[in-house]
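Late entry, evening session. Most of the bench is empty. Finally got around to the prediction I had been postponing all week. Sequence below, unchanged from the version circulated by S.P.
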Amino acid sequence: MKSLHDMPERPVPARASLDRLFELAEVLGAMMQRGMAEKGLTTARAGVLWALLHDGPMTQRALAAQLGVTPRNVTGLLDALQEDGLVVREPHPTDRRATLVSLTGEGRSVASALRGGRDELAALLFADVPADQLDTFTAALAQVTERLRAVGADGRK
């Protein structure tokens, strides 16, 4: 199998850009891992808190679908988060077969701290970037992300 660096048919700027994206993913991933670990969270547990912070209480099934995991997987995540006092599960008010999941006050505080850390990092990283350059950067990232999702969805290369 050829490495990315051994593929002369690819334009050099595209290869360099992809290399930078890989580097960015590594650095951001490591920073996120440290930030979550400081709060006693795994990536999966932080994802649950983030979803509940942004979308409010939801059923376990809806939460599993939003996170792209099985209902069985989300049950394990919720067991741990409930044990830590970050989420609560209650009977759904109108569907007796469903369980509604919501953040506790402590869960909301932890999720808000995660959001605050993200906002501080954004301010630090982009404080000196002119608005037009930031808009162009954001649009390019959106386009690349969309293409990556399309490649991942249908498996084409």
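Two things to note before I forget:
The mean pLDDT is 90.
The two ends are 14 Å apart (CA to CA).
Will write this up properly tomorrow.
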